[in-house]
């Protein structure tokens, strides 16, 4: 069973997170720390105790924006340890996802934390640590091919796929761009490429997937190729340029 440490400078949020973690059957113990400095002292004690010791910690659920040493700073320090605990970021801000996964975070959970979303993060951590207890039972509904579910501030929204102009890879996440804004989802770009190929999405670069119907212009300039999607110009890699030109020529 996992031993967890939750770190957040907001006391009500910290207490709620510790409560939810202790309610998960895969968590043996969960305790809290109110800032990164206190957490670092607790983690040092855990490392001195050893993996099987009474003070051991398997996973840290870590807020990012805290006074003094912030969550990203603490995670960077942990990468220098010989046997660091796993890290799950729990934050109200989606803008740090790329940095988080550069630090090998297990997951990135947005506040306010939903029980089922936290359970998924625990599952990922348990999987990495080899825990075998079953996940809590959560209702599962079949996917809707015309919409994709995104999470914003603890609220699930259903974005029509036809509204998505292009998709940008950001680590283990993908950023979905629409004319009204963007949304971050934890789905690899390659998965979306396979899922949406029949809906007119085409890879133009290792980092970009574009909906053909939203391409306004194809631009050629000194051997480089780019497309205009709305007001944004995106580069097309040489590998994908010919296929894209052929597809656009055949477009009704």
UniProtKB/TrEMBL annotation:
<feature type="domain" description="Response regulatory">
    <location>
        <begin position="3"/>
        <end position="126"/>
    </location>
</feature>
<protein>
    <submittedName>
        <fullName>Response regulator transcription factor</fullName>
    </submittedName>
</protein>
<dbReference type="InterPro" id="IPR001789">
    <property type="entry name" value="Sig_transdc_resp-reg_receiver"/>
</dbReference>
<dbReference type="InterPro" id="IPR011006">
    <property type="entry name" value="CheY-like_superfamily"/>
</dbReference>
<keyword id="KW-0597">Phosphoprotein</keyword>
<dbReference type="GO" id="GO:0000156">
    <property type="term" value="F:phosphorelay response regulator activity"/>
</dbReference>
<dbReference type="InterPro" id="IPR007492">
    <property type="entry name" value="LytTR_DNA-bd_dom"/>
</dbReference>
<feature type="modified residue" description="4-aspartylphosphate">
    <location>
        <position position="63"/>
    </location>
</feature>
<dbReference type="InterPro" id="IPR046947">
    <property type="entry name" value="LytR-like"/>
</dbReference>
<dbReference type="GO" id="GO:0003677">
    <property type="term" value="F:DNA binding"/>
</dbReference>
<dbReference type="Pfam" id="PF04397">
    <property type="entry name" value="LytTR"/>
</dbReference>
<dbReference type="Pfam" id="PF00072">
    <property type="entry name" value="Response_reg"/>
</dbReference>
<feature type="domain" description="HTH LytTR-type">
    <location>
        <begin position="148"/>
        <end position="250"/>
    </location>
</feature>
